[in-house]
Design brief:
Elements (H helix, E strand, L loop, with lengths): L4 E2 H7 L4 H9 L7 E2 L6 E3 L4 H12 L4 H7 L5 H42 L6 E5 L2 E7 L9 H17 L10 E4 L1 H5 L7 E6 L9 E3 L2 E8 L5 H15 L1 E3 L3 E9 L8 E12 L2
Antiparallel strand pairs: 1-3, 2-3, 4-9, 5-7, 5-8, 6-7, 6-11, 9-12, 10-12, 11-12
Length: about 280
């Protein structure tokens, strides 16, 4: 006949607390082998440790105690296997979500690096970019005539549209596109917002930024872009660059500190170019 083990010894042997054993009892997962009717003391058999092993194993797979209780009542392996396969799919989705959050962190690190390296630069530099994929959204107003309130309102419309399209990533760093013809002619009219999407989701893209050299400059506020853009256009003409595509206003970095309700942003103005001659 098996020897009874005090609850404290059972807890110590299995690396858990007495409170955990009592909680498992309350949840119907592991009843003591014997309760002294006079003292109320709880005693276990060492063989009951296998139940604790199973509980701890299933908890590692992120089953809840309620789910574990249901599983441990099964006497058919096929049904248990169905549950395991379902949990596998749940963990795969969770893994993708974790990967997505890690990608966002990497994006924030890169954006902060660009911000720290470029916030004091005021001239034009040439940067080579790989092909980038975007999802665009037309608005009903010229972005360059918007006040910040109108701009924020149209961002809400874009965000809602992306939610309806089940866009799976963070709504952040929304840019705008000024077509080449308007840029060349000094017509500052844009009704096209965009968000850059990861290459692995390029099938969602409806616009791409070609790989190649871009003339780049920076500004640090929404209401400074138009003035900076006009100066940027003049310098492009002076330097003799051949414009080869649309002008891109890319928001690199944005923040909303508690001390300021406005959207603070750092903008990279960029234009695909080729040198003349």
């Amino acid at each position: 006949m098996s020897t009874y083990i005090k609850i404290g010894d059972m807890a110590q042997l299995n690396g858990i607390s007495i409170q955990t054993l009592r909680y498992y009892e309350m949840k119907g997962l592991l009843e003591p082998a014997f309760k002294d009717p006079l003292t109320g003391y709880r005693y276990y058999h060492i063989e009951q440790s296998v139940r604790l092993d199973h509980i701890q194993f299933l908890k590692t797979l992120q089953y809840t105690l309620t789910e574990i209780h249901t599983l441990l009542q099964l006497d058919c392996y096929a049904t248990f296997e169905d549950s395991i396969l379902q949990k596998e799919e749940e963990l795969k989705l969770e893994s993708k979500a974790i990967e997505h959050r890690l990608n966002l962190i990497n994006h924030l690190k890169q954006a902060n690096h660009v911000y720290q390296a470029s916030k004091e630069r005021h001239g034009i530099e040439i940067v080579n970019f790989p092909q980038r994929y975007c999802y665009t959204f037309n608005v009903q107003q010229n972005i360059y005539q918007m006040e910040i309130e109108s701009y924020e309102y149209h961002l809400r419309l874009f965000k809602k549209h992306l939610q309806e399209e089940r866009y799976p990533f963070l709504f952040s760093c929304i840019g705008s596109i000024l077509n080449k013809e308007n840029f060349v002619n000094g017509i500052f009219y844009s009704d096209l917002m965009f968000i850059i999407i990861p290459e692995r989701l390029k099938t969602m893209s409806n616009y791409s930024l070609p790989a190649g050299n871009y003339a780049v400059t920076y500004c640090d506020a929404f209401d400074k872009e138009l003035c900076t853009l006009k100066t940027f256009r003049e310098k492009i003409a002076t330097l003799g660059y051949q414009i080869s595509g649309d002008y891109i206003c890319e928001v690199i970095y944005e923040w909303s500190p508690l001390a300021d309700q406005k959207r603070n942003m750092f903008i990279r103005l960029q234009l695909p170019i080729s040198e003349t001659g």
